[in-house]
Known about the structure:
The chain is of the alpha+beta class. The protein is 18% helix and 31% strand. The strands form 7 sheets. Strands 2, 4, 5, 7, 8, 9, 10, 11, 23, 24 and 25 form an 11-stranded mixed beta sheet that branches. It has a 6-stranded antiparallel beta sheet with strand order 12-22-13-18-15-16, with no helix packed on it. Strands 14, 17, 19, 20 and 21 form a 5-stranded antiparallel beta sheet that branches. It is globular, with a radius of gyration of 28 Å.
Amino acid sequence: MKQIIKYILLSYAILGNVFLGMAKVTLSHIFSDNMVLQRDKPICIWGNASPKENIRIRLNGLTESIMAGKDGKWKISFPAMHAGGPYVLEIQGKENSILFDNVLIGDVWLCSGQSNMEFFLSGSLNAQEAIRNSANKKIRLFTVPKAVRTSECADFSEGQWEECNPLTSPYFSAVAYYFGEALQKEIDVPIGLINSSWGGTDIETWTSWETAVEMPQYEMYKGKTLEKAIGFSTKNIERYTKALNSPDRGIAEKWYAVDYNTSKWKPVSLPDIWKDELSDEDGIVWYRTEVDLPQSITNMVGILSLGVIDDEDIVFVNGVEVGQSNNCFGFRRYVLKPNILLPGKNIITVRVTDTGTIGGFTSNADDLYLQVGSEKYSLAKQWVYAPSLLSSQYGLKNAGNNPNSFSSLLYNGMIAPLVDYNIKGVIWYQGENNAGRAFAYKKQFPALINDWRKHWGYDFPFIWVQLANFMAVDEQPKESDWAELREAQNQTLYLPLTGQAVITDIGEANDIHPKNKKDVGLRLAANALNVAYERDTLSSGPVYQSMKLENGRILLSFSNIGKGLKAKGNKYGYLYGFAIAGDDRKFVWAKAFIQDNQVVVFNEKITHPVAVRYGWGNNPEGMNLVNSAGWLASPFRTDTWPGITEPLLHKKKF
């Protein structure tokens, strides 16, 4: 019945506007059916209407009224409410009404960061089972549309809250889903998850301009607006985006046709990312190559493997479209039906669209091939290419639609529209893109947290994922920018109401996107229960406190050990991942064991040790120091010697 009334009112509103020419009452896109509003905090609702129009809003038995300003904008606040629902939110204007059904009041968590936060549930470990069991009316999902903006926005271009179920969960953030699922089971109130993330992004782009100009990279622009500093505006971006979403020259002129003349196209060896003339560009680039096949392939099925393409592709073989993908994490594998491939020359054409950051073919050479029967034909060779649309054609300097081209572009488009929407807290998974500038991250990360808290007006809990183990395992101890980024994350724990999920035991050496997102979500949820819900439980691992030298050995003391330290997976208490150094600062692997809830570290060849490092590397395999709750200790070091990223602090140019 509520739905019928809603449609009648909306139809009346539309007809009223047609005949009377009045501006409809509208709300920000963060408001919709199925939304979750934050419990125990004032509930702010805002939108637009005709200038000076009176608006009446009803929620949970309460009614509030407001008059729109001269600019048509309005904002109203309801008093704090306890968890509950479902409710109806009704907004009544002069000529139209809006009803939002199935509204819950509970806890709202903002989930942000780069690709490991964006990573879909459908691509995670045991995805089918998770999706099949994902129905939960008390969990609601909202995905913020990607938007690069040169000034702070009041709204998103679109958006819709959805109930969590097998139809809506597959393409939502896996980390956010597992976090929300675990949390909802524990606290038994509605959970709203807002996913605002973008793969391959720097922390700078998520920080407001107000805070960015206090950082060394941008202090030269102090007193200028972001648009003055960057040299273009959102209008440039909008014109470019419109062109990007329209048929490009390549489609209009049929660049995929077998007989299309590519004599003016340039050579390129694939696989490779966009570089040289394309290195600072976003847009659309076409690629083309030829493959000669024997007579024996007649009427055979083929497999075309193109590896991973960043971000989107449409693939043609002999002028016929054989598939397309808009998933920058997905592996491109297209099945070619009989009669697509022909004896003799075959033309493969790939239209690649890069919407931001890295573009092109990002896999290994072994991932590019055409297989027919038992024969594989390598496509890791010279192709030709031609751009059909580039961001620079629309005045966007240095890939202006690239969110990393300047600070604050994603804060403006994907965070600022949320700041009046109260939240319980934030979970954050970002840092891979800043590893090469880890020393700067020591200031940038706490600055971002304080920045967001300042804009929301209160200190909400902020919990993050420490970088996973990744890349090759070191044969000998060595310096590591990923280790330094983890150290910057560790040091940020000095801020109040913060927590960290350590995952250096569940990464993958050959994949920056580890598939085990469930354990990541569970560890974030454990931190949230401690930090945000004041559960007096261990939620993270041992924390290094102090060291002392004793008989040529170093004894390390820790806090947060619960009932004591343990060596996970080793009944004798032997520990792995420790390195030790003398005054020469040359680290070697060390022996380590637990004794009286301290860690004893030594190497017989180092008679006067002065420093210890634990898990210090890109991929610190085998770390096994845990507390009585089984939580892993974070990588750390006892020395303060300069790291490899410290001299790079001012080297990145924007």
